[in-house]
From TrEMBL:
PROSITE patterns: ADH_SHORT (PS00061). It comes from Branchiostoma lanceolatum (Common lancelet). The gene is BDH2. It holds the Pfam family adh_short_C2. It comes from the Eukaryota. This is Dehydrogenase/reductase SDR family member 6. The lineage of its organism: Eukaryota, Metazoa, Chordata, Cephalochordata, Leptocardii. InterPro entries: NAD(P)-bd_dom_sf (IPR036291), Sc_DH/Rdtase_CS (IPR020904), SDR_DHRS6-like (IPR051122), SDR_fam (IPR002347).
Amino acid sequence: MGRLNGKVALCTASAQGIGLATALAFAKEGARVIASDINISKLEQEVKDVPGIEAKLLNVADKDQVTALVDQLDRVDILFNCAGIVPWNSTILDCDEATWDQTMNVNLKSMYFLCRAVIPKMVAQGSGSIINMSSSISNIKGAPMRFAYSVSKAGVNGLTKAIAADFITKGVRCNSICPAAVDTPALQERINAAPDPVKVRADIVARQKIGRMGKPEEIAALALYLASDESGYTTGQELVIDGGWDLA
Ligand code: NAD
């Protein structure tokens, strides 16, 4: 008996990294997984032989695409909002309006679109679990040169608590996950594009007192717990998973 047997999970950013690891973990535990990504060819390649996963094109910043996809689903038990972009190396002074708008649209407004589309189904069912991907770099920790990203992820934590408070009596839970550095293709690309990748990688690893970055599968394990009924008493929380970054 899988931990998610009989549940339908809608997931974003499933083509790689944390999103892919989580879609695979959900399917392994018996969920029907509607996996989505803006990069549909990569997603299809990754999940083509995995039972229980359907690949769908979805740009989370496009309201019409969000509505059309959610309308196709009879029910949604789990919503995993994973999509996010990381504008690299900017303070408020280097962050132009286009970067601000794009970051807020992909990282935060997308969750407004997806939650607004999905919550009525969850309320009608009398149950549902929403899991929003935030970050330690948010209202939790200030990190240099991550201006727009920090603001967007703090917004994700606020959106999470507001939804949790408004729908707690309707059977809908809403939590966020706040990781420190996780070794994913996106993070590798950003490190490799830096002028001194060896130093940047060492600096990022050194932040976590456990002495390494997290693995996508470790974040997926927390998402799986939040998706399952095992976490039925948990809502409105920012779950920090940071390799001890926050320790003194
Ligand atoms: P990743 O780049 O490895 O994967 C991101 C996926 O998102 C890609 O498949 C990409 O195609 C997709 N995507 C990008 N824009 C999209 C859009 N508009 N619509 C739909 N899909 C889109 O990323 P990751 O490192 O696994 O990060 C996933 C999430 O975890 C992000 O929200 C990120 O902010 C968060 N996070 C990551 C880390 C980390 O260190 N990797 C730490 C904390 C939080």
